[in-house]
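subagent[fold] <- orchestrator: predict structure for attached chain, return tokens only, no commentary.
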Amino acid sequence: ARRANCIGSVGLQLLANAMAEPLRFLELPSAPDVSFWARLAELKLNEYKLSEDPIPCVGHYRACAHEGLASPLTLTSASFDLDTTYESQIRMEGEVVLLNTLESMKTFDRKGAALGAIRKVEASVQSGTCLSDPTALNRFVMVCFADLKQYTFYYWVCVPAAKTADPILSEGFTQGVDQAACEACQEYYHSETKGRAPFWVLEGGEEGGYRCRPIDNGGEGGKDDEIATVAFVDPSHVAGSPGWPLRNFLWLLCGGLCGLRRVRVLCLRHEKLGRFSASRSAWHEVAIPPAGSDTTVNAVGWEHNSKGGLGPRSANLASTLDPKQRASSAMDLNLKLMKWRALPGLKTEEIAGARCLLLGAGTLGCAVARILQGWGCRKITFVDSGRVAFSNPVRQSLFQFEDCLDGGRPKAEAAAESLKRIFPDADAEGVQLSIPMPGHPVREGSDLHRRTLDQVSALDALISQHDVIFLLTDTRESRWLPTVLSLKREKLAVSVALGFDTFLVMRHGCLAQGSDRLGCYFCNDVAAPLNSTKNRTLDQQCTVVRPGLASIASALAVELVSSLLQHPLKGAAPDKSESILGVVPHSIRGFLDSFEQLKLSSPAFGNCVGCSPKILDAYDTEDCEKRTSFLTRVFNEPEYLEEVAGLTELKRKAQEAMDAMEAMDLSDGESGGESGCGGGDDDDDFQLL
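subagent[fold] -> orchestrator:
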């Protein structure tokens, strides 16, 4: 006391400061949950792509409620909705910098990012915004790299705090506060602020009771020896160490709020039931150093990792995700990456959402299905009547040796199950069904006749339920009925046919093309399809082709469909017009012996046995009996198709024209080559042919 009298009050304050210790703050841990990472990955893939622009978001923290665990800064999928607020949780704005490579994260300017955030806090101090909205005193920055193939996120969070020239000192700490102060704060926190204010002023005490008010209410100047009392929602669980968000508030006071240098802080912590606990809360006597002449602001606050060092953390979600969900996300990943740099305007959902019907589950069907899966297509239906033979698995990628045992599994069923094993989220279905064909007779009124008509109805229903029809069967006549039904139902139909070292990929024309309709698979023929399975040798019974041919043709067929689905007119696109993926030809003929491909086009043939108006009218009659009669006769007498389509009459006229030409040649020879002969109707018929 005598020494204090000698050195005066100023000396006493210096002595007190010398005995005080720097106040230690507990950093605010971050806690992003699985939904946060899922939403961030979605934003990266679909919106931000290669951009590294900061993504604004919000986090929340609350008063500590556990003795051994601090309350973290929680980040969820709702964090990207900037209007998200929760009662009894303190809001904190921030941003996520999502980098493209792990190397970029290693060289990231952490100091610049922290300073950028603290300057935004400083701007709120200078403008006075932080007085009306104290949550503006704290922000966060997250720098992150997302390894979306491995479902691993590397991240580092900073809640920047301004670093004062001299340390903030702790002049005293008292564990436990009076119940009246807690109750007054509880009432104000929930009634006045809805549990969203991090700081407020606490006045009164002792017998007069406590009163709470916002920090912007009544902020008049004071004296250096005056002590202000403030309350703070404290996320820290450590006795003697308040939570990190208090640091910037004290820096605000250091900047001259009320001209105070000493502050009494009530650090409020929760009980388990969510009320402030008098026993767990604490008083801190704090000495704030005066603001110096140097206005340069430095920032600290990068989070420590699990090892206790300064460094990023990682979140591996592989173990938390359902394997099926992982497979689904991985399937979509490559497709979405196409839109980052190569084709930003690509509509991957067009083919991914297409319902594809594969008529034939053999070499072509297996290859087409796998490539469709590569485009993200989930709905794939196989139609086949055969069973897996021992010769199939080496050429048909969806079958295994076990599928051949006990007489062989149904091909359609085995192929669909194989697709689901490859990709569990696939909506694959196998339908064992024989396709009725011209030249394959059925006796009218027999059980076979009834089954055949049922098969026609089943095939019609399947084609109606799908968007894209692939004709992948190994006989010409098996493509006739699907050709008629696809055109009738206005579906996009694509035929793939193989020779030994040649192939054809052709899209069928559609009614929407009007007079410019492109031809179908049968338009270049002048004969009806017959039973091609009769009287065949062994090499003719099997599909004998070069092994690589089916994969090439299948890939071109699927890529042609994917290009068409990007075109505004879809299947009605004109020949050689272009979509975002390139040209959409009518047909592609390939020759493996010379490794050449030709893009060819042909208009619809008016007397085609597959798509001519006369054939469609004969099938599309409202009279069910007439339709049944038409189909029955086609199955039993394939030449009847030529009669209905007008080919029989055309052939007769052509023959007459040829006979006339021969007669004309004989006449010319006998007359010594007189000119002026020929012409007339017969010549017109020949030109028509």
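orchestrator: received. Logging for downstream: The longest strand covers residues 152-163. Residues 1-18, 673-689 have pLDDT under 50 and may be disordered.
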